[in-house]
Design a protein that fits this description.
This is Pseudouridine synthase. Its EC number is 5.4.99.-. It comes from Pseudomonas versuta. Residues 1-58 form the RNA-binding S4 domain. The chain has six helices and 15 strands. With 230 residues, it is of the alpha+beta class. Strands 5, 6, 7, 8, 11, 12, 13, 14 and 15 form a nine-stranded mixed beta sheet that branches. The chain starts with a helix and ends with a helix. The protein binds uracil (URA).
């Protein structure tokens, strides 16, 4: 929300007063004087008028989880454990997942209460690279490298996937980097060659690599530096 809107919503200020307060530099956001009425404030912003606290700002929370296979990327599920069940945190209903993984996919998952941060991370325009370790049923041929780089046509969405980087590791294993997050994208890309993915593990999202200290099912908060990477 815009700062002037936030202030006008306060019962003690009229619109005209809001303009004056900003010009007189009496409003602070997160400790800094702000006079721009368009300045975006969020639930996490601390907003002060002189010495009076108008909004304390709720703490933003960011976690990295090593998702194990056999767990649903959802906040609730009637049958299976969910990734949120793995967190021992208060107010879990405030948290959401930034980029889902399939039931049997393991690896790096980011969880937060900051919608702005997670939107930036997951929206297709950001083209955030996601790196997966993949094992398949059949041998992965060199032609996959060219085809994945050129893109695979997905009839359902009527689109061709963005160029993806494939590094062959063994006859049936590879590392794949994709910049989108289409439904079952990796499985469908290998499906183009009728090759079934039997193991899928997300190693990294952008510059953030899954912490090797985290066993499957474990998680930890992100450091401010890690949050600021995005
Ligand atoms: N692609 C898939 O097919 N599954 C995942 O879980 C992630 C990417």
């Amino acid at each position: 929300m815009r700062l002037d809107r936030f202030l006008s919503n306060q019962p003690q200020f009229s619109r005209q007063q809001v303009r004056l307060l900003l010009i007189e530099k009496r409003i602070r956001v997160d400790g800094r004087v702000v006079s721009d009425p368009h300045h975006e404030v969020r639930d996490f912003s601390r907003i002060e008028y002189d010495a009076q606290l108008l909004q304390a700002g709720k703490p933003a929370r960011y976690f990295m989880l090593h998702k194990p296979p056999g767990c649903v990327s959802a906040t609730q599920d009637p049958e299976h454990p969910t990734v949120l069940d793995l967190l021992d945190e208060p107010d879990k209903h405030d948290l959401h997942i930034a980029g889902r993984l399939d039931f049997n996919t393991s690896g790096l998952m980011l969880i937060t209460n900051d919608g702005h941060w997670s939107r930036h991370l997951t929206q297709p325009q950001t083209k955030m690279p996601k790196v997966y370790y993949v094992e398949t049923e059949q041998v992965i041929g060199a032609e996959y490298v060219t085809q994945f780089n050129e893109g695979i046509y997905f009839a359902y969405e009527d689109l061709t996937t963005q160029p993806a980087g494939l590094q062959l590791l063994g006859p049936c294993s590879a590392r794949l980097s994709i910049v989108e997050g289409r439904y079952h994208q990796v499985k469908r890309m290998f499906g183009y060659f009728n090759n079934k993915v039997v193991r899928l593990h997300r190693e990294s999202i952008g510059p953030l690599v899954l912490d090797s200290q985290l066993a499957p099912g474990q998680y930890r908060p992100l450091s401010p530096e890690e949050v600021g990477l995005f």
